[in-house]
Structures are given as structure tokens and as C-alpha cells.
Specification:
Layout: H1 2-12, H2 14-24, E1 53-57, H3 61-77, E2 82-87, H4 90-96, E3 105-108, H5 114-124, E4 128-132, H6 138-146, E5 151-156, H7 160-168, H8 170-179, E6 182-185, H9 188-195, E7 201-204, H10 216-228, E8 233-239, H11 243-259, H12 266-272, E9 275-280, H13 286-295, E10 299-302, E11 319-322, H14 329-335, E12 338-341, H15 354-358, E13 363-365, H16 373-382, E14 385-387, H17 391-402, H18 405-420, H19 425-438
Parallel strand pairs: 1-2, 1-4, 2-3, 4-5, 5-6, 6-7, 8-9, 8-12, 9-11, 10-11, 12-13, 13-14
Length: 439
């Protein structure tokens, strides 16, 4: 009865979903492409294949990049497999296209109605389903169970906040987690929270994102551009709504007195010695953030308008560099001396700091890192990150670190070592999944 009620709600929500996707497509055209796939209708035929079809679901950009290393490990051990890659976001699907080999398939995740799930499974007939990190949908799990398709959750994480939310909906969440064939968690704390919801946790494998190698060409390009800049570069990385305004409010307090020739003390002056770079988390906000920067009295140089020689050093009117491109975080981390961790200065749980560490870019984060709690604590212990109580304190610390050559060198090396010392999850997961493919 409860699942029937949930399924009815999901069925009734389909027109709202379609309208939302079409509205989103005005800024990101990918959302309007292959729209019928969202509801289990496909125009692509599935040709016969001699090996197993492995379905991997990576909802967004971050999960897709993490999945890349697991896919490579699976191909190495099972070269005849056919990959079916599904996503929920346009950025994830665009990134996923880079991972497809000849004969592989790609589609949108089916909306969680029994009919859409049934059509999805009947069309693609996967031998194994792999969900990345958090994507547990009740009808999707039940559909796989009914069709005898093993469905596993890998690189699994569950914050305490998400666990509490799931427990409030235990009548829906617990059957879904219990019906998963197997779960491999990132950390022991994740494993315990998942087990509290009935998940069959088979082991703790670490985080796949440590195994992802940043694009070396991008890192080198970013560092070459950094060499041309006379000032240190501090980046607000993967910023969320509200954080850009908060940063600009802080910067205005330091810059405006200079414009009116008022004196500055030594603490304030460090902010004036830094070039600021802002990289929003979501591409649909690029234009809005550019407008916001200009409305606050700053000039803006957008990455999309940079010449091949890189951003121009600025003088006179304070200028913010804006990273308005997709798939270039390695370039931005190579360009930055220090990064402020977006999503951690508002109660949003923080963004992934592992890519910054892999690029040897130390991080200053705020108080809210519950989405990546263990990685944040390990980064702190390793000297790859610092924690600040608020954004104003983080700005001071990031500026001071970027201006201290010796401290910055130590922090860079600590970040690099932290990233390298936690690798290996991809090989461990590939070995754990082999029995399913052998069957």
C-alpha cells in the first residue's frame, strides 16, 4: 500500500518533471535531449552482445568522474563487457560520453515509476547494476529484484543528516536499502549508517575519487598561467548560491577604503595582495554570478573570454576572475595557490576536496563538511586542509597561506601526499564485483 502510494505520486509528478527539464534546458540544452528516455521509451536498438552488459548509474558530473576509474578497472578484468551508462544531469551525461567504447550504451536514468523501470530493464537487459554513492530509488531497486538483476551500491556514502531523513521515511527507505544485493562503503562510519537502514554492507573500500587522476595538461596549463600572475591566486571553488555574495561583501570592506584613500591595517592589506578566482558549482549560474560581481563594483574576467595566453593581470579597478567553463577544475586548481571549499560556508555539506589535493592545491574549508566528513578530517590531519569557523576567517587564512612561500610549499606537498596515500579503491571494487560478472 505504501509503495503504491509512492508510485502514484511519482506517476503524477511526471508532467512537473518534464516541465522542469525543459525549463532547465534553456540554460543547459542537454536536458531537452532524449527526453522520452526519462520515462522508459527508447529509440536506440540494443544489438546482441557476447559478453555481459554492465549497467552503471552515475547521476552527475562528480560521480561520473569517479566512475571512470572503476570502469577502467572492470574493462581490464572483463574486456568483453558492454557498458550501459546512465545519468540524471546534463553535465554527467556529457562527461560520460568520454567513457564510452565501441558498442557501449548511454541513457538517462529512468524516472522512478514501476512502468518506466520495467521498460528500462526489458530494453537493456543488464546482467549487473552498479549504483554510485547515494542513488537508491525504491522502484528501481524493487524492479531489479523482481527481474533477478543483481543491484549493488558502490563508493557508498551516507551522512548523518541523510540517515536521519531516511529513518523518518523508513517505511520507504528501509525496504529499498534491504533489497540491494550488496553495498561497499567509502568509510566505516558510512558503513554503520547504511547498516542501520538494513543495507548488506560487504566491506569498506575507500573513496574512488582518490583514484581519479587530474588532467595533467590542464594542471600544467594552469600552473603556466599562474607563473604569469604577479599576485598569488586564491579560488572560491565550486561555490554555491549565497557564497559568492558573502565573499564579495568581505572583499568590498577591504577594497572600498582603498578607493577612498582611507588607511588599512596590516590584517586587511593581505586581501589586497591576492588575485581572486570564483568557480561556481553549477553552470546555469555562470551568467548570474558574472552579473553579481559587476553589480558589486568589481570588474570581471570570464574564462570563456580569456585569450590563449591566459587571464590578464589586473591593476586599478579590482577584478575577479570567473571560471565559467565545464570540465576544467584541474586547470583552476593548477592556477590557484589556495582554494576555499565551496558548499562548506553554508549548511550544504561541502564539495569534494580530493581533486584539489590531487592537484596539490591546499584547501581552507568552512564548518559544514558533512557530505565528505571523513575525507575532510583526514585532510586536516594530513595538513592538506585547514578549517575556519566562517568565510571571513577563511579569507584571512587563505590569503596568509598564499603569501607565505615556505608554508605554501609544505601545504602543497601535504595535499599531494594525502591524495596519493588513499588510492586503490577501484581495484578493490573491481575484484569484489568479478563474481557477479562471472555468473
Amino acid at each position: 500500500m505504501i509503495r503504491w502510494f509512492y508510485s502514484c505520486l511519482m506517476w503524477l509528478a511526471q508532467p512537473l518533471l518534464k516541465r522542469k527539464l525543459l525549463r532547465r534546458s534553456q540554460q543547459e540544452p542537454g536536458y531537452a535531449q532524449h527526453l522520452p528516455e526519462r520515462f522508459g521509451h527508447y529509440d536506440q536498438a540494443v544489438p546482441p552482445h557476447s559478453g555481459p552488459t554492465v549497467w552503471l548509474h552515475a547521476v552527475s558530473l562528480g560521480e561520473t568522474r569517479a566512475a571512470a576509474v572503476l570502469i577502467a578497472a572492470l574493462r581490464a578484468q572483463w574486456p568483453h563487457m558492454r557498458l550501459l551508462l546512465t545519468h540524471g544531469t546534463a553535465t554527467g551525461r556529457a562527461e560520460g560520453q568520454k567513457l564510452l567504447a565501441t558498442g557501449d550504451l548511454q541513457a538517462w536514468q529512468p524516472w522512478d515509476t514501476p512502468a518506466a523501470v520495467q521498460r528500462f530493464l526489458a530494453h537493456f537487459r543488464p546482467q549487473l547494476g552498479i549504483l554510485m554513492e547515494t542513488e537508491v530509488w525504491p522502484n528501481l531497486v524493487l524492479g531489479c529484484q523482481l527481474q533477478a538483476v543483481p543491484l549493488v551500491l558502490v563508493n557508498a556514502r551516507l551522512s548523518d543528516k541523510s540517515r536521519q531523513q531516511a529513518q523518518r521515511l523508513a517505511w520507504l527507505a528501509r525496504p529499498a536499502f534491504t533489497a540491494l544485493t550488496a553495498v561497499w562503503a567509502q568509510t566505516q562510519a558510512d558503513a554503520q549508517r547504511l547498516q542501520s537502514l538494513g543495507a548488506k554492507v560487504e566491506g569498506v573500500m575507500g573513496n574512488l575519487k582518490f583514484d581519479a587522476t587530474p588532467n595533467p595538461t590542464q594542471v600544467m596549463q594552469g600552473r603556466a598561467w599562474r607563473e604569469q600572475c604577479p599576485q598569488p591566486v586564491v579560488m572560491l571553488a565550486s561555490s554555491r548560491e549565497g557564497e559568492e555574495q558573502a565573499l564579495l561583501d568581505i572583499l568590498k570592506r577591504f577594497w572600498l577604503p582603498v578607493q577612498t584613500h582611507q588607511a588599512q591595517d596590516a590584517t586587511d592589506s593581505v586581501v589586497l595582495k591576492v588575485q581572486w578566482l570564483v568557480v561556481p558549482r553549477h553552470p546555469q549560474r555562470f551568467d548570474a554570478v558574472a552579473t553579481l560581481i559587476q553589480s558589486q563594483g568589481f570588474a570581471v574576467q570570464r574564462r570563456s573570454a580569456w585569450p590563449a595566453s591566459g587571464p590578464n593581470p589586473t591593476a586599478g579597478q579590482p577584478t575577479i576572475w570567473l571560471g565559467d567553463s565545464l570540465g576544467e577544475m584541474a586547470l583552476y586548481y593548477g592556477l590557484a595557490d589556495v582554494a576555499l571549499l565551496g558548499g562548506s560556508f553554508e549548511p550544504l555539506g561541502g564539495q569534494n576536496l580530493i581533486e584539489a589535493a590531487a592537484c596539490a592545491c591546499p584547501v581552507v574549508m568552512g564548518p559544514h563538511t558533512f557530505n565528505f566528513a571523513e575525507a575532510a578530517e583526514k585532510a586536516l590531519a594530513a595538513g592538506a586542509a585547514q578549517r575556519s569557523a566562517n568565510l571571513a576567517q577563511a579569507v584571512d587564512r587563505a590569503c596568509e597561506l598564499s603569501l607565505s612561500d615556505n608554508r605554501l610549499l609544505v601545504a602543497r606537498e601535504s595535499a599531494r601526499h594525502f591524495a596519493q596515500s588513499h588510492q586503490g579503491a577501484a581495484q578493490r571494487l573491481a575484484a569484489a564485483l568479478m563474481p557477479f560478472l562471472a555468473e
